[in-house]
Every structure is written in structure tokens, then in C-alpha cells.
């Protein structure tokens, strides 16, 4: 039987261990057809430097992806695995330098995800989605 995915908010995936199977909702900000990677964020447009970001590899899904999935502004459901950084060393070093320059701001480094399934989320009421997700996560917490 396939491993179940863990439903998380995009702003919390940086807290999840590498190798964990997750499911999250996000908005496409860019698609690089040379690397088959989507840049997904939790709001659109996202102009703040600290916007949580996932770099999602869709290379294994290329034969089944429709244009609606790679369209900028599309809201997507993503299931996949947290992977070590997809960024090359020069991008990672530049990112670390930027973090040092603005150390007082909350910073979320881009998290790498290898997608195993993606589908359009359609019209989203983000506030209702977030409230429902928080309620679900609260209900699933073990009693302490």
C-alpha cells in the first residue's frame, strides 16, 4: 500500500524532514521548462522576500502535465517528497548571503519537492482553506 502523505501548509514545509511525503496547496509563480521545475508560493502575487517557496520538480510527470498546471497564477494541489536542495551551489550561496543581509526578517528558504502528483485546485477561498486545515491539524494532535 502506498505511503500516506502529510498535509501541511506551504509556510511549514521547511520544518518537514527530507524524504517525507507531503501534500500542500500553492500558487504557480514560474515554470522553468529547461529544468522542469515549478516555483510555488502561498500567495499571488508574492513580492515579500520572506514568502514561503517550494521549488517543485515535475520531471517525472511531464508526459501527463497539462498547460493549466504550469500556468502562472494557477493554484495547485501537490503531493511529493521533500528532497535535498534542487538549487545549484551558486544559487544556494547567493541565497545564504541574502539571508545574512536581512537577518532580522523571518526567512523561509526555498524547499525542494519531487512531485509524484499534481492537479489544479480550481477557485480557492484561501482563508477558508487555511482555517479548515488548521482545524484538521488541531483535531489530529495527540492528547498531551
From TrEMBL:
GO terms for cellular component: CST complex. It comes from the Eukaryota. GO terms for molecular function: single-stranded telomeric DNA binding. One of its GO terms (biological process) is telomere capping. This is CST complex subunit Ten1.
Amino acid at each position: 500500500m502506498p505511503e500516506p502523505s502529510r498535509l501541511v501548509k506551504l509556510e511549514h514545509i521547511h520544518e518537514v524532514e527530507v524524504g517525507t511525503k507531503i501534500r500542500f496547496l500553492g500558487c504557480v509563480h514560474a515554470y522553468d521548462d529547461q529544468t522542469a521545475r515549478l516555483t510555488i508560493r502561498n500567495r499571488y502575487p508574492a513580492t515579500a522576500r520572506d514568502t514561503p517557496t517550494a521549488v517543485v520538480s515535475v520531471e517525472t510527470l511531464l508526459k501527463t502535465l497539462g498547460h493549466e498546471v504550469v500556468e502562472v497564477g494557477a493554484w495547485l494541489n501537490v503531493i511529493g517528497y521533500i528532497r535535498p536542495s534542487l538549487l545549484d551551489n551558486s544559487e544556494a550561496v547567493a541565497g545564504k548571503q541574502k539571508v545574512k543581509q536581512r537577518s532580522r526578517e523571518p526567512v523561509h528558504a526555498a524547499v525542494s519537492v519531487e512531485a509524484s502528483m499534481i492537479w489544479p485546485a480550481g477557485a480557492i477561498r484561501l482563508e477558508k482553506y487555511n482555517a479548515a486545515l488548521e482545524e484538521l491539524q488541531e483535531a489530529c494532535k495527540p492528547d498531551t
